[in-house]
Write a structure and sequence with these properties.
The protein has 644 residues and is an alpha+beta fold. Helix content is 15%, strand content 34%.
């Protein structure tokens, strides 16, 4: 056995390149079984080397991956800006998709050319496409009416071609937002999720059921929610349905019997979440199997797949995925499960009764070997607002170790949202750092999902306080335990995570370097400029305007730029509609005025979240070079980054 060489942490040679990480980390966007007798597996995938185009692909009998939706077509919805449900397909191999450039719904038959199913009508968007009992349902978002809140409804789109607006039937409206339409087997009832400003779907929502009347939509009634956040109704038969809800503080499964005296009945009361923040349309946390059992995702920090039987039993199904799990489709006892595990993001075909026969469809494996993918270590540290959960990824390289007495530098990852969570799955981006001798601490600060409503609501009114206190507590806890070098702690995050980065650097001395990707710097500007889906998000996270304006000013890093004294790398998409470049530019100018080492990287054609391979490679290499310059270690094989 070869003895590892000794080199300073951060300078270990690694075979993991930024280009390989970009290519090996698929961004999946839905999956379906297609075909009646021997179904194929189709999936959506962002293609970084094609500028982030969202392709729909299938695996041929030969094993080759074939594009069902060829370039330059791109299946991507902009409903709620974050999209989701941008395509579906029937068993005849007909693809229905939302084209990114015009947001219309198109039909593509095998061997044919795409034909539009919805008209050219200005800024009208579609998403959440789903085929149910032969009908194509979608969420429509209309920005052409001149109203402060775009009109949203659930529509039935004729599948036979033609793009006449009069042929679209509106099935449900009457709220600011709609999602998860579910048509009863006999087609007489529609169930869906609705919510209104100022709430987000994970704060307060309603499960509504209406009897379809045609014309302007159904007469409806609220059957669950109001003080909770129901999700994903699924019909068992014409009178019964299953849905997720969190009146107990956890998203558990419930059964609603419309003909019963006591219609609501819990199915599985567990201290875990079957459900999560509804950021994108089409996410599914459970599915009904043909024999009456239920396959479900349960989250308590990390996630697992379980099967619930009709007698109340529960059985875990072993899968190589622990976070971002979504049950994309089901046939018999087989599921299409997307998520991330020890080999990164992937898509698996899982037979719940024969897990050993699980088949990897795409992704989910490391091209560098398991020895290069670090194992996560869940940790919990005390914080000023309660326990703080995180996942530690120590440096891991089979050929190198650090010098005796030296502790490794660490980067504290701050996820976006802020209502989101990480689940302990190593990614190529994490391995890119750990294989070079840089540890990663991925923190689920208070406000994160995956630990129940009480943990999620810890951030209410406290954004910029609790999140900062928690990441500082986690970082210092790691240093005090002797795991990390307390003098070489960096913090990195994007969007809402970038906000926490900037707040931490202006309100704490815990970090020696920061990386902000399109981070929020000014709450008032965010409230004024952000899109409608998040237009009132800050009401809960900070407070309503104008009453809380002083608090918005006080919390914003832009109000305290004189405190910025920590080297900072700023990365910004110039087409970002959520966090405009002006915010990052203001931080850059303040760093220059304060004489603080920094770099500002701006990317043409990138929005809120980077997609192109060129940008992904550039940012990973720049971040590594930045850390090396600030913390004093060499970064072989990486272009230098000039600091101003």
């Amino acid at each position: 056995m070869t003895t590892p060489d000794v080199r300073p942490y951060g300078s270990w040679p690694s075979p993991i390149s930024a280009a390989e990480v970009s290519a090996a980390s698929p961004r999946l966007e839905g999956a379906r079984f297609v075909g009646a007798d021997e179904p194929e597996v189709w999936w959506g995938e962002s293609v970084p080397e094609e500028g982030g185009r969202s392709a729909v692909r299938r695996r041929a009998a030969s094993g080759a991956v074939v594009d069902v939706l060829p370039a330059p077509w791109s299946a991507r919805s902009r409903v709620h800006e974050y999209g989701g449900g941008s395509w579906t397909a029937d068993d005849d191999g007909v693809l229905y998709f939302v084209e990114k450039t015009d947001q219309r719904v198109w039909r593509l038959e095998p061997g044919g050319e795409p034909r539009p199913l919805t008209p050219e009508a200005g800024d009208v968007r579609f998403g959440g496409l789903t085929l149910q009992h032969g009908r194509l349902l979608a969420v429509r978002e209309d920005h052409t009416r001149g109203t402060a809140v775009p009109a949203r409804d659930i529509v039935d789109i004729p599948r036979d071609g033609g793009a006449d607006a009069a042929r679209l039937s509106s099935l449900a409206s009457g709220s600011d937002f709609v999602a998860h339409p579910a048509l009863s087997p006999d087609g007489s009832r529609l169930a869906w999720i609705a919510w209104n400003h100022p709430h987000m779907a994970w704060d307060r929502a309603e499960l509504r059921i209406g009897r379809l009347q045609g014309g302007d939509g159904p007469e409806w009634t609220t059957v669950a929610g109001g003080g909770s956040s129901p999700l994903q109704p699924v019909w068992v038969d014409d009178d019964d349905l299953v849905y997720a809800d969190d009146p107990t503080g956890r998203w558990n499964l419930w059964r609603l019997r419309l003909t019963a005296d006591l219609p609501h009945e819990p199915i599985a009361a567990v201290d875990a979440d079957t459900g999560g923040p509804l950021w994108v349309l089409g996410t599914r946390w459970f599915t009904l199997l043909a024999d009456g059992r239920i396959a479900a995702v349960e989250a308590n920090g990390a996630e697992e797949l379980v099967v619930l039987d009709t007698a109340g039993g529960r059985r875990a199904v072993p899968v190589d995925a622990v976070t971002r799990l979504s049950i994309e489709d089901a046939r018999g006892t087989r599921l299409l499960l997307s998520g991330a595990g020890s080999g990164g993001a992937g898509l698996w075909e899982v037979d719940v009764d024969d897990p050993a026969a699980t088949r990897l469809i795409v992704g989910g494996t490391s091209p560098w070997g398991a020895e290069w993918m670090p194992r996560s270590r869940p940790i919990t540290v005390p914080g000023p607002h309660g326990p703080v959960h995180a996942f530690d990824y120590p440096p891991a390289n089979p050929g190198f170790v650090g010098p005796d007495g030296e502790r490794p530098p660490y980067v504290v990852f701050v996820h976006g949202g802020p209502t989101d969570h990480v689940g302990g799955a190593a990614s190529g981006k994490i391995a890119y750092l750990t294989s070079r001798g840089i540890g990663v601490l991925d923190v689920n600060y208070g406000g994160s999902s995956g630990y129940g409503r009480a943990y999620r609501e810890r951030l209410l009114g406290q954004w910029g306080v609790v999140d900062v206190d928690d990441v500082v507590a986690a970082a210092r806890g790691l240093a005090e335990a002797g795991t990390a070098d307390g003098a070489r702690l960096a913090i990195a995050g994007g969007s809402a995570g970038g906000w926490t980065v900037l707040c931490a650097l202006t309100n704490s001395d815990a970090f020696g370097a920061g990386i902000s990707r399109y981070g929020v710097a000014d709450l008032r500007t965010l409230a004024e400029d952000t899109h409608d889906f998040e237009a009132r998000y800050l009401d809960g996270m900070v407070g309503p305007l104008p009453e809380a304006e002083e608090l918005y000013v006080q919390r914003s890093p832009l109000s305290h730029l004189d405190r910025l004294s920590t080297p900072l790398l700023i990365e910004q998409g110039l087409d970002d509609r959520v966090v405009p470049p002006s915010q990052s530019e203001a931080v850059r100018d303040a760093l220059a005025a304060n004489g603080v080492a920094h770099a500002y990287l701006a990317f043409e054609g990138e929005g809120h979240g980077f997609r192109s391979a060129t940008t992904l490679v550039r940012t990973m290499e720049a971040e590594l070079a930045f850390l090396g310059q600030v913390f004093g270690f060499e970064t072989p094989g990486v272009p230098p980054l000039e600091l101003d």
